[in-house]
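Allow me, if you will, to draw on your knowledge of protein folds for a short while. I have a record of one protein: its chain in single-letter code and its fold written as discrete structure tokens. The full record is reproduced below for your convenience:
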Amino acid sequence: MKRSRDGRTPKALIVQRDRTVLLDLHTPDADQVRVGLSRFAELVKSPEHIHTYRLSSLSLWHAAFAGMQEGEIISFLEEHSVTGVPKDVVRYIREMLDRTGRIGLKRQGERILLEIDPSVREDVLELEGVVSLLDIQPDGSLIVPTGNRGLIKKALVRAGYPVDDLAGYEEGDSLSFRILDTDADGRPFRLRHYQEAAAQSFYCGGTERGGAGLVVLPCGAGKTTVAIRTMELYQVQTLVLTTNRTAVAQFKRELLTRTSLRPEDVGEYTGSLKQIRPVTISTYQILTHRRSKKDEFTHFELFRGANWGLVIYDEVHLLPAPVFRVTAELQARRRLGLTATLVREDGQEDEVFSLIGPCRYELPWRELEKEGWIATARCMEVRVPLDPDLTENYDLADKRGRNRIAAENPAKLKVLQKLLEKHAEDRVLVIGQYLRQLYRVARLTGAPIITSRTPNEEREALYEAFRLGDVPILVVSKVANFAIDLPDANVAIQISGTFGSRQEEAQRLGRILRPKKNGGEAIFYTVVTADTRDQDFANHRQLFLAEQGYLYDIVEAKDLWRGAGDEGCLGVVRS
């Protein structure tokens, strides 16, 4: 262990007055400090040696609702900071956490009251747009009309005041079932310790403290099992919203194999089926369908199609704006959001916080990796020079044109061929953004391709062939970012992505994180055009995974042709 000249272990953090926190990756306890810091701060930069975190109102509120105390956060920073904690930062932490207890919603008979601490009542009522959402009574009490319960929470969060919603929820119609103690093959089945803990954290003993919030776990960690356990705890009819028909089918399969529910208890509400049953599973796509922008959303009545006691939002970080709007009206229903990351690229994290709820449970990815619940993963970025024939076009193009030219750089295909040769015995997913590029890859490799145009039946057949080993390579578009159960996939090669999307990077790594039968590791390659916007986007995409402790080994494409093996390539540059 490295020590400073005075014999003490070097400290890992520098806390700055602008509320940024610098983490020195070369200190002995950097990994341990990173895990603690990520509980209440968000990563904003992850270069080679120093990672930059930021303390924000939302990051601190999530920590507070998850049970962290003001003193715990300040003590952590003081313990690990080289220069101490500036008074301005201490003051900000105290102010943000102090605000978590100032405003609450409570039920009084049939009415919902907004209760505000007298010390901030006048300031709050002067906030723009707040009074218009309230009925102020002669005695000064503040009544929240039923339809405004979500809107008032959203308005106050944006004004800097999180609302503790203790107004309770409608019970919904009952649904009796249990989780089976054997799986589909007759083998004993038990929830993992963290799955039970996540469900119980959301349930909160059935009190008004539970019933709304987020569970954050990596792909492959069994978020569906957490949802099913939550359903079992509440025993109520449930609406499940997810990303696509594949996810609908997988959720339905899990319910019918893991629980005592019968086929007639579980319905699909998709393009081809319109079943409303005690458990109904639908997609965001079908809910946001409308014939034209002037028309109403065709299927929003599903939200009122039964007396739901629980609504489950799978991949909640993708929740579309129209569903946010109807969710603002659904505050009397319990709401469970499942996600691998709290990151939203549209900056609407505050809407998730206010309309779905605060984070109730989160477990670091690398902790699950250490326990063997998800595969050990290695991340590598392979940097490719821009094809010389495209240099002039790139220089003359606008930003959008440069993005496309760099992402579809033909030189990436040579690297892809080399990586496929290296992993000839593995199960490989080749993932990309642009269809023209993906079809070129499919022709080059002879591998089947799955895009949004691929019929659902054909998709399922190809996924099954991949699971069986009949198809060792699948070329997939962004439709494969979510809800694909391919446990034997151990290599992913990303050749293009959705600009700088951190959530997509997390989801794509997640495709290969399911534990491997032989305990082998997973390898995630990102092929990037060097010194272009493609590389800039890659740096941003990697932020969330860097926060989870994944470091990207940087490899120059030319090294692949020099015969450098893994040991020769790894560690050239660490991001």
